[in-house]
């Protein structure tokens, strides 16, 4: 049997794709001692765990993975409690709320960031744009003071560090837990005040939402807003950086997208398949479950490798090729469980912000292409991905001929 590289090794962090292949082919279900979990890598198995038609999986693992920084969020809930919470929050991220209230917010925030560098002829698309844009959008959607964006960024960075703290660095853990306290001190008075003065923003929508006589408490809303920082920030930030890294590495596909902007949704879907922002999602088995690779006992933690499943040759032709024209991937980002890749997961916890993320990336790419004619990577720069649970380019220095606003 081939040796399976450890998912916590430096070789894996540098390039996980060879290890994913070995796992799919010869070790589709393995026990991993360091994370005390079973690792699943084939598309059919990851899809089966996410869809969970037989009700065999829970998200109890989030009680220790995310509760210390966010409190009790929608991700930890299951059954009817989850369905009601989902019905309370989901309408704000689609339909007329998205189209009429939030598309202008997305357009404005993207433009503000681009205006800061469009005259200069150079930028780092990660630090100057991607890491700022989605967090600014969420803060603005919530109707928070622009002056507080800097604090949001600080909290966001601490939360991301907490969630990715594989080595258990106590300082990172403490900073994450401190963020929970600081965020609550900041957010709870704003929520109480907003309840008295409802407006047109996302926070007001959450305060007023009611389903079957159930409403969210201040604490519920605070935890949800905290989750949005990470769930909607880090993911979309990596998706934007990755779509540009992928297109810059394939200049003919970049030229095609530049010439025909209706190809942006395809480039987005293919980016999420080829380089998903979230590579790993965990679940807890409620019963014994048999998958293609073997049997998992009840009460076990299961690590689902989205990054491996999205490149399964049983599902995609030439999976290691970035190809926005591929015909085995369409561009539907529906709120049903019928997606074309696993980057947003599937089933009950399917990303509630998928359409918002799609709108952010599509608008961002369109505006950036307009602002950066002859966009190219800085001389000699080859974008490298970093991260294990979440993954994306660490820097993306680009050059372009400056254009006037
Ligand atoms: C859930 C990925 C953008 C909010 C999820 C899950 C994934 C995911 C994989 C499932 C987690 C699980 O099953 O354990 C992504 C990616 C994004 C993105 C790749 C960007 C490209 C967003 C945005 C928002 C958002 C923009 C909102 C502002 C959420 C929430 C959940 C979630 C609230 C929990 C849903 C539930 O438990 O029912 N996302 N996400 N996400 N996402 Fe996203």
Automatic annotation (TrEMBL):
Pfam families: p450 (PF00067)
Keyword annotations of the record: Heme, Iron, Metal-binding, Monooxygenase, Oxidoreductase
GO MF annotation list: heme binding; iron ion binding; monooxygenase activity; oxidoreductase activity, acting on paired donors, with incorporation or reduction of molecular oxygen
Family: Belongs to the cytochrome P450 family.
The protein's name in its UniProt record: Cytochrome P450
